[in-house]
Amino acid sequence: MINENPASVTSSTAPTKSFFSALSRYRRILLPLVALVLLIWVLLPAVRAVTLVMNRTGRSAPATSLAGIPVQEVQFHATDGVLLYGWLAVASVHAPTIILVHGFKGSRFEMLPYARFLYKGGYNVLLYDSRGSGASAGWGIALGAREPDDVSGAVHYLNGRTDLTEKRYGLLGISLGAGIALMAAAREPAIAATVADSAWVDESAQIEHMGNISRAPFTLPLLPYEPALVDQLIGAHLADSRPLAVIAQIAPRAIFLIHSADDHNATTPLSGEHQLYMAAKAPKQQWIAPSGGHVGAIKAHTAEYEQRVLSFFAHYFTNTGV
User: Fold this and answer.
1) pLDDT per residue as tens digits for the range 174-184
2) Thinking of the domain 64-202+241-319, which architecture would CATH place it in?
């Protein structure tokens, strides 16, 4: 006959009960945390897509007194109906007009350094806020996929102004605006000469970046729906935005590609400028500034930048009879 001691049985089972009790508590804490982390991981592509497109910065028109040149406020519609606001500086009703296209989530204010030297050089200048930027309509940008419609709208607006007698135009875009300028010039025969400063070849770098979050030395893969969501948000297929594919169509109108040798922007490497230049047909020219970084040649080499751009426009407008 075995004589069990109740006290000893209770003592031996107490650690086991304590262990399972603690495990249950940890489970109640850990499971919601794991679910929260998983939810964040699932939603990250959506958050990034909206953040990439949405533009809240500088969403008002700057005072005309800040322009440094005499400007008049104008408004016009992109060819797909988006209402755009900008400034027009008229040097002469008989002069060509240069249309300026700003960069990623920028505004007309970004283009004032270009507008000032072009106006001083005798050109009319139209600088405007692209869709989803500055004072123009839209909650977000289209990453270059629909902005060529903005440029076409600018051309149509200028064509409709009876006070401006010259109906062939120049185009100067920087960064995102450089690629937009190339795509717009390919379809707008009224654009006689195009300057593209720090242009991109396509959206492949942007799309590839959507597949993960990389913070050296770690890379976190993401669910692959961000590109499709971006397409829905911008109302276009981002992968179809390819200046490299259309640059040859600009000829026989002129192209001037500008790039800094030390441009380390992932979307606008110097190798991309080389591809664009090789794909373009004559008349074309390029200038690789020795320094300045992304769209920085105008600051690093101001006098040379201005002289080269003015000479380019003067030469090709003269040669096209404008």
Assistant:
1) 999 999 999 99
2) 3-Layer(aba) Sandwich (3.40)
